[in-house]
Automatic annotation (TrEMBL):
PROSITE patterns: AMP_BINDING (PS00455)
Superkingdom classification of source: Bacteria
Domain AMP-dependent synthetase/ligase, residue spans: 26-293
Keywords recorded for this protein, A-Z: Ligase
Species in which this protein is naturally found: Cellvibrio polysaccharolyticus
Record field: transmembrane: none
Protein name per its UniProtKB record: Long-chain fatty acid--CoA ligase
InterPro entries: AMP-bd_C_sf, AMP-binding_CS, AMP-dep_synth/lig_dom, ANL_N_sf, ATP-dep_AMP-bd_enzyme
Molecular function via GO: ligase activity
Keyword Ligase assigned: yes
């Protein structure tokens, strides 16, 4: 049985190899270690134990993550820090490392530069903190509130061991660049920690635009691209990608299901289908597939998948789950005799759009809290692109605003209201204002009728 590699010794070991590729030049593992130990000294000199980490720069995030681990602190990784979300999550942390100014937060906030300045007057930490490191990640829960998911460094190390067994040799040490954030478990593992274990350089930055991503891929070719269906399904139609796709020789996709047509278009252009990883914040990685090989999902090494008898949903056992009993996911499945399975669709009301998971109930509750809104329901429309649509029943004040200012103005007002808690890519793109939500004789909302509100040929937003 192979030994699980531990992250703290890995952080401390360093190395002369290049681990980060940035605009300022290559950075070695030794340099990252030395920076992290200086920050760890500054963190150990402070009384706060629970630290939130919110940094857009991948290199800064990596060094700060290493420093918090080496200092023995508890890490909190918010999925987004929109004002309302930051306020709601603030009870989970005592201090914050960020470059963003959160004026409404009562806790101390420091930048990496401030920590470096404080460390200049201190001896470097030896990084020999004791005990397992606690982490807190967040995902949308079925209750509508951001759901805190507790992890430990040991569980992350166990999952990295599984990933390394599965595809470490295949991916090797070529540079990794990403269109997904390191703030979520997918990016944390696949962009930050797993490349560190493989000695594969991280390309600094999260690339939101294909032109920037392709320019970086060409510069550091050949590269592995870490992405999501939202980005991948648009790449084949990009002229620059058609010309330079050879710079990208490996593609990993997660954060949603890659549609069959998108996988086929990608394969026809590049000669291979992306490696898709199925998982969640709660479970970590569960299964994989390449659609040029099979549409069925194959459990990752040491992961056991079964069907929950009560719900018909996917039940997961694994060493990196953190519990002895199975975790039941929200996906219905058809299990094959050989252990592979087919996904049959979601059994809950968590919507996935633009590679992000959104609680429908949370968004509906936020809309209902607006002064113009009596009731609201949101759905996911799947057509040429996935988008969230909102059916909103306005109260008298809302109807007056609609009559006076028009639909587009009301749309924008409600979008601005949601922007306090949700990131812009997941906001509703389609809006309808029925007099009442369609319901059956029992008073329950009929989802098919909600969808029919948006099925008309009228394409107005």
């Amino acid at each position: 049985m192979t030994t699980i590699l531990r992250l703290r010794p890995l952080f401390l070991a360093g190395g002369a190899h290049t681990q980060l590729l940035s605009a300022r030049g290559p950075v070695t593992a030794n340099q990252l270690r030395d920076q992290a130990l200086r920050l760890a000294a500054a963190l150990q000199a402070r009384p706060e134990q629970r630290w939130a980490l919110w940094l857009e720069n991948t290199g800064e995030f990596l060094v700060s993550f290493m420093a918090l681990v080496l200092a023995g602190k508890t890490l909190c990784l918010p999925g987004n820090m929109q004002p309302a979300t930051a306020s709601a999550l603030s009870r989970h942390f005592d201090a914050l490392i960020s470059r963003t100014d959160f004026q409404d937060l009562a806790c101390p906030a420091v930048t990496p530069e401030q920590l470096h300045a404080a460390a200049a007057e201190l001896p470097a930490s030896d990084g020999q903190s004791q005990g397992d490191i606690q982490l807190m990640l967040f995902t949308s829960g079925s209750t509508g509130e951001p759901k805190a998911i507790g992890k430990t460094l040991d569980l992350l190390e166990r999952e990295l061991h599984v990933l390394q067994q599965f595809a470490g040799q295949q991916l090797g040490q070529q540079p990794v660049l990403s269109t997904v954030s390191h703030q979520h478990i997918y990016g944390l593992l696949h962009l930050v920690l797993w490349p560190l274990l493989r000695r594969a350089p991280l390309v600094d930055g999260v690339f939101q635009y294909p032109e920037e991503m392709l320019a970086s891929a060409i510069q550091w070719a050949p590269v592995t691209l870490l992405s999501s269906p939202t980005h991948l399904k648009r790449l084949p139609e990009n002229p620059q990608f058609s010309q330079h796709h050879g710079a990208i020789t490996q593609v990993i996709s997660s954060g949603g299901l890659l549609e069959a047509e998108a996988a086929r278009d990608f394969q026809q252009l590049t000669g291979y289908a992306p490696l898709e990883i199925l998982g969640s914040t709660e479970t970590g990685g569960v299964a994989w597939r390449r659609q040029d090989q099979s549409l069925l999902w194959q459990p990752l090494p040491s992961v056991v998948c079964s069907v929950d008898a009560e719900s018909g949903c996917l039940a997961v056992h694994s060493a990196h789950l953190g519990q002895s009993e199975a975790f039941v996911m929200g996906d219905r499945i058809a299990l094959q005799d050989d252990g592979r399975f087919e996904l049959l669709g979601r059994a809950d009301r968590l919507l996935k759009v633009e590679g992000k998971r959104v609680s429908a109930s949370e968004m509906e509750n936020r809309l209902a809290a607006h002064d113009w809104v009596a009731a609201a329901i949101v759905i996911l429309l799947q057509g040429r692109r996935e988008e969230i649509a909102a059916a909103v029943v306005l109260n008298q004040a809302g109807r007056d605003a609609l009559a006076k200012s028009g639909k587009l103005a009301v749309n924008q007002t409600l979008r601005d209201h949601l922007l306090l808690a949700f990131e812009r890519p997941v906001l509703p793109r389609r809006w309808r204002y029925p007099a009442a939500l369609p319901a059956n004789a029992q008073g329950k909302v009929v989802m098919a009728d909600i969808h029919s509100l948006f099925a008309a040929e009228d394409s107005a937003p």
